[in-house]
Amino acid sequence: MTIFQFPNDFKWGTATAAYQIEGAAKEGGRGPSIWDTFSHTPGRVYNGDNGDVACDSYHRYEEDIELMKELGINTYRFSISWPRIIPDGDGEINREGLDYYHRFVDKLLEAGIEPFCTLYHWDLPQALQDVGGWENRRSIDAFVKFSEVMYREFDGKIKYWLTFNEPWCIAFLSNVIGVHAPGKQDLQAALDVAHHVLVAHGKSVSKFRELGVDGKIGIAPNVAWAVPYSKSEEDKGAADRNIQVYSDWFLDPIYKGSYPKPLYDWFEQSGHVPPIQEGDMEAIAQPIDHIGINYYSMSVNKFNPNGGYLQMEEVDMGLTKTDIGWPVESRGLYDVIHYLQKYGNIDIYITENGACINDDVVNGKVNDTRRISYLQQHIAQIHRVIADGINLKGYMAWSLMDNFEWAEGYRMRFGLVHVDYRSLKRTPKESFYWYQNVVKNNWMETRK
Ligand SMILES: N=NNCCOCCOc1ccc(-c2cn(C[C@@H]3NC[C@@H](O)[C@H]3O)nn2)cc1
Fold it and tell me: Which among 22, 166, 314, 405 is annotated as catalytic?
């Protein structure tokens, strides 16, 4: 048996995102987002699922907060629906949207739960997409305006902020691979989006500092850990590109003021470069207080000239997989956090980690032992990282409840709480009670 004891001030939480749980897509003055458009486009989302209702958390947030209190967490990561705050992206402010989030945040604080707020979790107002979205520099100032409204409104209530969730997904998954909104397959578009998101991040951080907001701010890249299939330079190059496109492409401009040269040169050889304008790199490189790390899995990579924009393929090594097909390999979490130490001993939160396990309710219970095993392995790696003196300050399980898993719709379940999408009944799973115990004890036990 091993006991993993965590620091007294360690933050234990869960995470969700607005479009994935709120529903009420046409209520409270909310405008349409690119995910409303995308999910209503035939063939884009499994089964034609969409976020019109989702978990109906817009109306049921008090019930959700009761579940958080039962779980015992001290931190809850959520995101703001930009189209609820400024329905057309950069025009009039919707007071009803602000009031909704004030009611929600006040309830969280009343419950003794720290709000951990992501400003942008993919739901760009459609009106901005209609004029080019993140490919258009207009979205930069629009985001800064949106973030300023939020900073002014919630200064004193929200102390932990993230500008963007998973910039790799915003740029590359959505504009090269094309499986997320707006669903393009254009490398230059991806580099334009990545760059403008970075500039928007930096200018928003500057606004945060200028306003003297009482809190801390950062960004939440999803990180890939990858190892080469062989010792060949070609396979090593493929693995390096895969790692860099998730983390270095975004964190180098923030921490070093320039894009990572190996990957910059890789894209440049096909004639694709970021649309850098005078002052952009300085604007991006504003000091931040923390980063959120979203980690799910790692991969073994081979060079493959037909392997997409990175000329890389992920080799199936026969590892146990979750129900979404991602290998379970927790050592990548330890390795990638050590990899990120090249940016300094920065404050790191695990802002997402969890398993897609699609067990259903049987006799009123969900016996998701595979999710417990996944969480146990990954939390143990977190303990190793802390033992190495790394400033890992908290862990937020993805997700509090089953929710809309983007292009996979509702078939993929990541929640500690099961959601019946017909009745919207919430049922805590066995993993909820396992995690509740870890949080209560602030230590975790593994047994042979
Ligand atoms: N790399 N090349 N791939 C080639 C082919 O990819 C096809 C699909 O790719 C991907 C890659 C990554 C993801 C993903 C999903 N989540 C989970 C969410 N995180 C934020 C929160 O909202 C969670 O719902 N994290 N990552 C999805 C699809």
Answer: 166
